[in-house]
Amino acid sequence: MKREYTIALAGNPNSGKTTVFNALTGARQKVGNWPGVTVERKEGKAKLKDMEVTVVDLPGIYSLTANSIDERIARDFLLKERPSLVAVVLDASNLERNLYLPLQLMELGVSRLVLICNMMDQARTEGLEIDTEGLSRALGVPIVPTVANKGVGIERLKNVLATEVAKEKEPPTCPLRYGEPVEEAINELEEAIKKHKTLSQRYPLRWLALKLLEGDQEYLARLEEGNPTGGEIRAHLTMLRDKLEGEIRYDLETALVEKRYGYLKGLVRKFSKKKWDWEKRLSVSDKIDRVITNRFLGIPIFLVLMWITFKLTFSVGGPIADLIDGFFGYLGEHAAALIASAHGPAWLASLISDGIIGGVGSVLVFFPNIFILFLAIAVLEDSGYMARGAFVMDRFMHAIGLHGKSFIPMMLGFGCNIPGIMATRTMENEKDRLLTILVNPLMSCSARLPVYILFAGALFAHHQGTIIFSIYMLGVVLAIVLARVFKTLFFKGEPAPLVMELPPYRLPTWKGVFLLAWQRSAIFVKKAGTIIFAAVVLVWFLAHIPTGVEYASQQTLIGKLGTILAPIMKPAGFGFWQAAVALFFGVLAKEVVVGTLGTLYGAEEEKLGAVIAQHFTPLTAYAFMVMSLVYIPCIATIGVIRRETNSWKWTGFAVGYSLVLGWLLAVIIYQGGRLLGPG
Amino acid sequence: MWPLAFCKPGEKVVVREVAGGMGIRRRLESMGLYPGEEVEVISAQGGPVILGVKGCRLGIGRGMAYKIMVSYNGMVKGR
């Protein structure tokens, strides 16, 4: 009999679910050292013995009560889609808390459950010896010890999963008992709930009884949903709760939680031994934290880290970029010459040298800068700094109306706004989340970097770094100001309280960091080969028709389009058609701003930078850079904003405010600059 | 009882009460923080606090640190 099996990977954030997922499926999903790296469910196929199963990697959860979107995705998958088997990944160093979720799953009556005791090596270096077999017997659930990032235990895990997933079996009985008075109440309540068909057919009675006793709002609300017995059960429940609270002398919810943790504490004590000071790793981490999260040092340290990132991006990336630039220049000339000598058509030579090499090449030149930027962000992510940043900036973020957790989406936005916006899924409060999404595009992403490097290099040769840094800072300042404004206008109310797990610091591995940076910069290269390529060919084509007029002249179709748009930008000082169409096509992807200029000016003799220097003054170049920063999120970002806000209204707002703001700023800078001195 | 925000680094205190809605209480419970649990204050800056809870580190924002009431172990437990 062939069956389609699904295995769900669940567990606390940062316990290594994605690492296990990658080891099982051979995928290369992103991992990182902060809670919330995975915010959507990812599927993959794994071969277990002779069968193929679907493995689903879920966002991290601490329990089955979900507060944020990523947690809801995980919980709903477990509760509603009912996978064939749930494998819970545990951080071996923190079993007590990590076992809370599987304990809930057992109470829920999940029939096929496997525990993966991951990061066993880490536990061992902390002097922790875990008797996984004993623990497995006590819980009645198979446990497989692994070191997933080194592949240790994966073969065994595959075998266990293969046997368990196909087993026909009753749910394991949860060994946890709550003691006399509570158990009696559970039994009584179970009898009462039996009559409630809609609920009792979906969930085990014991689970329902427990949830009701705990006062879980979700289940209480469903009690009365179209069922006449609901009121009766509620009355019974209130009576039982009052009676119990009178007996145990404090609130029932806390009593139940204490019981669960008490049970887990006992288990962990019985089946693990501390051979030496197991908090050694933590004590180093704690010492670092006392400095990094210090009230006075926290923000300066953050700024220094930013400055280093920035410095590296330019000083290391720049020279390599120049080499590539030279290479493309050489390639362009020779390709055209080669085609001409082979008696190829002139249009082909032009397409290749002006269009493709001039356009796509002018963007690809910036690969080194972008790679280094991603490398620096990956180091921050992998080291464990990200979560600290959220914590350090919490107070500041509050002051501007954002949430501490907004920090991570904003930081990721420097790389690309899309993952930045996705990362807002970990935020519990919908208002905080919307606000963070709306201002995220102001974080200057790597796609805008080529525009700055080109323009600042062409017109501010001696102050290139300062100029570009000022653009980045302008983005940050705008985000702060607008967050404050939007907060007062649309999102009044207290932000959700910040509680966040801080994973121990670890030295980033070369492999991990390079892989992450490579994957992200590969997206950039892929973009160059697809959307940027297509846009550039389109621009080149439009610059050629109608036939008979000079290439890239104002009489061409693109020239006419630009001439229509140019007057809008006239008050900002760059009211000529090339700049207007560059911005116009830049909506497809911000790199296309450079790609378009590269294509249009490709026919001229000098390098692109030199051509830019002829058409722009320092003042108009600065206004143009600011415009490129603000004017509109790229198409892909707009799509993600739409999906994540689930509202055309907010998407339209994000587009609208940025267009107006970008234009206004460009105009203010140009007009202001002219008043102050010669442009 | 006093708010967690007033604690000093190195102190070990017992959580007594969490003021706040069911949502945040549930969240803290699932992270191992609930009335009766002893926690260690790792870092405190007159507001935000880093706590050691069950071998993990939790960063608690300033607002929340004022809503978690603690006292020393051995002090009489409230109702």
Structural account:
The complex is a heterodimer of chains A (679) and B (79). By secondary structure, chain A is α/β, with parallel strands linked by helices. Among the domains of chain A are: 6-166, Rossmann fold, CATH 3.40.50; 180-274, Helix Hairpins, CATH 1.10.287. Helices cover 64% and strands 7% of the residues of chain A. Chain A contains 34 helices and nine strands. In chain A, the strands form two sheets. A six-stranded mixed beta sheet of chain A has the order 2-3-1-4-5-7, with helices on both faces. In chain A, strands 6-8 form a two-stranded antiparallel ribbon. In chain A, strand 2 and strand 3 form a beta hairpin. In chain A, helix 15 runs antiparallel to helix 18 (367-383), helix 24 packs across helix 31 (608-615) and helix 27 runs parallel beside helix 30 (591-600). The model of chain A has no long low-confidence stretch (mean pLDDT 90). With 79 residues, chain B is α+β, with helices and mostly antiparallel strands. Chain B has a single domain (2-71), classed as SH3 type barrels (Roll), CATH 2.30.30. Chain B is built from two helices and six strands, in the order E-E-H-E-E-E-H-E. Chain B has helices spanning 22-30, 62-65, and strands spanning 2-3, 12-18, 38-44, 49-53, 56-60, 68-71. In chain B, strands 1-6-2-3-4-5 form a six-stranded antiparallel beta sheet. The A-B interface holds A 62-63, 65, 67, 93-94, 96-97, 100-101, 215, 217, 249-250, 253-254, 257-258, 261, 278-279, 282, 285-286, 289-290, 293-295, 387-388, 390-391, 394-395, 398, 404, 428, 494, 496-504 and B 9, 20, 22-37, 42-43, 45-48, 50, 52-64, 67, 77-79. Strand 9 of chain A pairs antiparallel with strand 5 of chain B, so a sheet runs across the interface.
